[in-house]
Fold this sequence. Notes:
Blueprint: H1 14-17, H2 24-32, H3 37-44, E1 49-50, H4 51-57, H5 63-75, E2 79-84, E3 90-95, H6 97-100, H7 103-118
Amino acid sequence: MTTSFNSHNSCHNREDCRIFETCPMVLVHKLISGKWKILILWYLCGGSLRFSDLKRKLPDVTQKMLTNQLRSLEEDGLIYRKVYPVFPPKVEYGLTDLGDGITPMLKEMYTFGIEYSSNL
């Protein structure tokens, strides 16, 4: 995955960053940017969920937007989509091994949210 913004000159960590084609921080930003991606990943940390379960946890998201965000996360290899051969169709989403690697970062974000709200 590449991005049009891969300048290492603006990175405060540019000496370590130069060995990569794209700044790792820019890459992570691209992977998780999107209005719902972080929350989708967070909810999938607890285990696989069906589309309807995700929709219920994210009541403000449209079906189209949720579908787009899930497809993007799947294309990037962070989540998997499992279709069961039943009627009506049953589809589950879960974290891949690669996607599971983001769990510690999400837990840190959660902890920061607690600390931040305590200081308001």
